[in-house]
Write a structure and sequence with these properties.
The chain is an alpha+beta fold. The chain has 2 domains: 48 residues, no CATH class; 73 residues, Alpha-Beta Plaits (2-Layer Sandwich), CATH 3.30.70. The strands form 2 sheets. The chain has a 4-stranded antiparallel sheet. Strand 4 and strand 5 form a beta hairpin. Helix 2 runs antiparallel to helix 3. The radius of gyration is 20 Å and the shape is extended. The two termini are 22 Å apart.
């Protein structure tokens, strides 16, 4: 997670495990209306189970409720239901596929140009770099600039 998702992890010898150095949210995902309704029904069932003495379902009900909720103005409450960003990436050289990058794949545009969907630009950039691919960001321009800034900061640290 630290290398592929840029998670701020540190090892804690006292607790014999890893923990976040600072607050971090895993990359989110998009829920369609039907999926949101399914999660809402699961939250309702979990809440009912907890009211019948199965207290272990209370936490699950709260989490599922947060995932499925919308605010009064129709906007999503949480990051788990926001719309993704899209990028067109041209793959250069011979290698055009890498396992983790395929998670983001939406489709092939033309030639060696692919469309990817992502929620966290830093995670997407990390996966692009970690894949060892030669590529060119065609659009959006803000992603290209964000990547330049991030790489510039990294180079200064070397």
């Amino acid at each position: 997670m630290r290398d592929s998702m840029n998670a701020p992890l540190e090892y804690c010898a006292k607790e014999r495990g890893y923990r976040y150095e600072k607050e971090y949210v895993l990359p989110s995902f998009f829920l369609s209306e039907s999926e949101r309704e399914t999660v809402r029904l699961l939250a309702k069932q979990s809440k009912e189970l907890s009211s019948f003495g199965y207290g272990k379902y209370q936490g699950q009900a709260e989490i599922l409720s947060k995932i499925s909720e919308k605010s009064g103005d129709g906007e999503d409450n949480g990051s788990m239901t926001r719309e993704p960003y899209f990028a067109e990436i041209e793959m250069l050289g011979g290698r055009t596929s890498v396992g983790p990058l395929e998670y983001f794949l939406c489709g092939k545009a033309e030639g060696q140009t692919y469309t990817y969907a992502f929620f966290d630009p830093d995670v997407f950039i990390s996966v692009l770099i970690a894949g060892g691919l030669e590529f060119r960001i065609i659009k959006p321009n803000w992603l290209r600039e964000h990547m330049k800034e991030r790489l510039s900061k990294l180079l200064k640290l070397l």
